[in-house]
């Protein structure tokens, strides 16, 4: 089976304030877009603990905290740092182009 990637539009670059994040839906795929230290970072928006959204999670000192039970993940890669989650987030590639933010999504 061949896989390729397509760019999917999320928002304009000025849509997020520094140290905020927002959930987007790409068909049935939830995407969390974060703006932290001037960088856009995206993950599949499912906390590995109970598959809840991370939207609204505090971002501080290169960490993202799950707003539900407080698991923490390293930014920008999403590596797991503390329980109750036991693994990291699934990162997505972010592309900025012409003032807009896109993510790469796999196709089959
Ligand atoms: S759902 Fe994220 S820590 Fe529980």
User: What fraction of residues sit in β-strands?
Assistant: over 45%
Attached small molecules: FE2/S2 (inorganic) cluster
- Number of helices, counting only DSSP H or I runs of 4 residues or more: 0
Backbone structural class: mainly beta
Spans where pLDDT lies below 50 across 5 or more residues: none
Number of strands: 11
Overall 3D geometry? globular
**Residue-averaged pLDDT:** 95
Give the full name of the CATH homologous superfamily. Rieske [2Fe-2S] iron-sulphur domain
CATH class: Mainly Beta
Keywords: 2Fe-2S, Iron, Iron-sulfur, Metal-binding
InterPro entries: Rieske_2Fe-2S, Rieske_2Fe-2S_sf
Protein name: Rieske 2Fe-2S domain-containing protein
Structural write-up:
Residues 8-103 form the Rieske domain. InterPro entries: Rieske_2Fe-2S, Rieske_2Fe-2S_sf. Keywords: 2Fe-2S, Iron, Iron-sulfur, Metal-binding. It holds the Pfam family Rieske. This is Rieske 2Fe-2S domain-containing protein. There is one protein chain. The relative contact order is 0.26. Helix content is 0%, strand content 51%. Strand 10 (94-97) and strand 11 form a beta hairpin. It has a single domain, classed as Rieske [2Fe-2S] iron-sulphur domain (Rieske Iron-sulfur Protein). The protein is an all-beta fold and 108 residues long. The chain has a 4-stranded antiparallel β-sheet with strand order 2-3-4-9, with no helix packed on it. The chain has strands spanning 4-12, 20-26, 29-36, 39-44, 59-60, 63-65, 72-74, 80-82, 91-92, 94-97, 100-107. It is built from no helices and 11 strands. The protein binds FE2/S2 (inorganic) cluster. The site of FE2/S2 (inorganic) cluster has 11 residues, from loops.
């Amino acid at each position: 089976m061949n896989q390729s990637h397509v760019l999917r539009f999320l928002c304009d670059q000025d849509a997020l304030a520094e140290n905020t994040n927002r959930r987007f839906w790409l068909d049935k795929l939830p995407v969390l877009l974060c703006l932290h230290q001037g960088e856009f970072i995206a993950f599949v928006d499912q906390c590995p603990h109970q598959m809840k959204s991370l939207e609204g999670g505090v971002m501080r000192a290169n960490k993202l905290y799950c707003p539900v039970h407080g698991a923490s993940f390293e930014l920008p890669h999403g590596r797991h740092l503390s329980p109750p989650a036991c693994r990291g987030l699934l990162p997505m590639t972010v592309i900025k182009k012409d003032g807009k933010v896109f993510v790469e999504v796999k196709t089959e």
